[in-house]
């Protein structure tokens, strides 16, 4: 939890504040809802100004040459090497025309394949507009994480307890194409899903964070729900079927999983049957061989006990 709260700090770059778990618990005990946190005036004015101006009227930034190293390369850098990614020009990040934050252009190009492609083509572009379906606070969490971890010892991208917020962070990191920053978040969600700790509302929220049927999070949800259906552990069948009707892609994926497992079970059963037949043939052949040996003149004087020991009586 410390990592997510540290990523959300108010500073001159406009990262959004988020209450830590202990702060939320303390406020809950006092029966007081968290007070809304106003955006910094500088951030409000900057967002309004950028949104109201054509791109050509915003000052361009200097072009830089920065390779895209993604998470594999980023986590291998020393603290000093990560710190150097903060040097140089900054660009504004926008979602739905609203400024989320400023961030080092060099850092963003290093950790985001999406940003690297865009900023390599538009080398002096002062802003980067991200897809509208992303949550602004989730984007701030991911980019705030990368900014923070350049100044401290390395740690993984964190997440809050709220499932919908966590799903948004997963979606933002995956959309930015960070090469794996979202995996720590996916691991947490996978645990919650397979522990059957989530209700239909949470599952619906997570499905909305998935990028199609091949999204790893979608596959986790489909496998879990297919398993629940197969083991007849769905709770109230009516609610389960209603949920599947609302998510036809999920229902189709579950049917595919069922068919795949059914084919594997049949294949396993066929292999078992073939193995038993082979064992029976081998046993029959061994018995026949002993009988053939018994026909040898030198073995005709076997006692009954010896004959029983070799299976002839």
Keywords:
5% strand, 313 residues, three-stranded mixed sheet, mainly alpha, disordered N terminus, 3 strands
Could you walk me through the main structural features you see in this protein, from its secondary elements to its overall organization?
The protein has a domain at 2-153. It has 15 helices and three strands. The chain has helices at residues 2-7, 21-29, 41-52, 70-76, 79-84, 105-111, 113-121, 136-149, 163-175, 183-194, 200-207, 216-230, 237-246, 248-294, 304-309, and strands at 90-95, 98-104, 127-130. A three-stranded mixed β-sheet has the order 2-1-3, with helices on both faces. A hairpin with a 2-residue loop joins strand 1 and strand 2. The model is unreliable at 1-12, 16-20 and 32-57 (pLDDT under 50).
Share in helix: 55-70%
Described by the principal axes of the CA atoms, the overall outline is elongated
How would you state the average pLDDT, rounded? 82
Low-confidence stretches: 1-12, 16-20, 32-57
Instruction: State the total count of DSSP E strands.
Output: 3
Helical run tally: 15
Structural class: mainly alpha
The strand order across the widest sheet is 2-1-3
- Report the portion of residues in β strands: 5-15%
Terminal Cα separation, in Å? 74 Å
* Helix and strand element order: HHHHHEEHHEHHHHHHHH
- Computed over alpha carbons, the radius of gyration is 31 Å
Major sheet details: 3 strands, mixed
